[in-house]
Amino acid sequence: MSEAPQHGGDHWPRRLVATTPVLPILIVAAIVLVDLVSGSGMTWLPLLAVGPALAATTSGPRGVLCLGLFAAALGAVLGVRDDVESRELAVVLIALVAVTVAGSLASALRGRRERVLAAVRSVAEAAQHALLQPVPATVGPFQVAVRYSAAAAEARIGGDLYALVSTPYGVRLIVGDVRGKGLPAVGTAALVLGVFREAAYDEPDLLAVVARIERSLARNLGSDDFVTAVVAGYPREGELEVVNCGHAPPLLVRDSVVVPVEPDRPAPPLGLRTLSGESPALQVLPFADGDQLLLYTDGVTEARDHDREFYPLAAGLERHTCDEPARTVTALHDELLAHVGGRLHDDAALLLLRMPQAAGTPVAREVSDAGRVGSCSP
What is the spatial order of strands in the sheet that 292-296 belongs to? Predict the structure, then answer.
């Protein structure tokens, strides 16, 4: 019982130290030291206002007031010591007090904006979790892993989208990218995902699912808005259906070889079919035990390093492919962040689908000359 008050007493000094404007105090101390050494009087005293002005950018109103009063007291002492004329000293002190009051108000406004931004971040993060629902590690016969990073760190949400559902017609998934940024892009992504999740359960034909999304976007999007997307399904054993609507080609990993799945017939993005008159085509790919399919958004392939070089996703996938999708995707994501220097400038999504090896099937573990691997490296 006696330890609780002691803990509270220890908390206050730690909080005081954490909120102390160290740099402004050092600046005030340096000005005082220079004045003591030079004895210049009015030459250095006006610079004391730099302390509270700078403290307003880093400290709360109380810290600014304390530093301003401290600087004013030091200024008064130095003025008397240096025989500064009383009228001139009064002007300096009044100016210092005015800067302190203004800095305190600015600090209070800054703190209010930070609290509002924190609330917006919290709401945006909750919206992201509701929009991009977590994908389990196993869906139907597949192992699955997803990584998503939004470029808009202030909002923690972007225009990329993904979903994977198990339906009466097999596992179906979508990965897409909405044109534009901000709340309009988020609203469009929510619309696409809502229509996809409903149509995936209702429509036996994958092209009919895509058509439902197209019709909904045609009613709700502007003439310049569109969504690139890849919609895929697994209707029967050993076959994967893919419909590419203007999106980056998925990467198929088979026998440790990475191959882009280019569409047989290019199709426009979702929302632009009425302008082009072209319809998407259905591709059927063999998808056997051990095969993997990586779907992604252009925030991955268009990420540049300091030399303006794009991130080589296919080469990275060859280096990091293993029989655990979560490890593969994590390694790709970490390498992507290292490539761009730690911060993405566009939203980036990675979704990896893997058909597990059947029981008793040997797993290749050799490393080829090109550095491709067929199992997780230690």
Answer: 138-139, 142-149, 348-354, 292-296, 251-254, 257-260
Q: Is 32 helix (H, G, I), strand (E, B) or coil?
A: helix
Measured in whole angstroms, the distance separating CA 258 from the mean position of its chain's CA atoms is 27
Q: Compute the distance between CA of residue 82 and CA of residue 39 in angstroms, rounded to an integer.
A: 6
Q: What is the largest CA-CA distance in the chain?
A: 96
Q: Residue 364 has what pLDDT?
A: 41
Res 156: pLDDT: 52
- Letter for the amino acid at 253? V
- Coil, helix or strand for 270? strand
What is the per-residue pLDDT for 121? 66
d(CA 12, CA 18): 10
- Estimate to the nearest angstrom the gap between the alpha carbon of 144 and the chain centroid: 21
**H-helix segments, the chain:** 3-19, 22-38, 50-55, 61-81, 86-131, 182-202, 206-220, 273-276, 298-301, 313-320, 325-340
Decide: helix, strand or coil at residue 378: coil
Q: What is the pLDDT of residues 187-228, one digit of tens each?
A: 888 899 999 999 999 999 999 999 999 999 988 887 778 999
Q: Please write down the long-range contacts of 310-314, taking CB distance under 8 Å and 24 or more positions apart.
A: 311/335, 311/336, 311/339, 311/340, 313/251, 314/251, 314/258, 314/260
Tell which residue, 271, 281, 339, 330, has the closest CA to residue 310: 339
Q: What is the pLDDT of residue 63?
A: 86
Distance from CA of residue 357 to its chain's centroid?
34
Strand-pair category, 138-139 with 257-260? unpaired
For residues 299 and 349, the answer to whether their CB atoms sit within 8 Å is yes
Residue whose C-alpha is closest to residue 209's, from 245, 256, 237, 179: 245
Cα dist. 364→163, 253, 271, 322 in Å?
30, 13, 43, 10
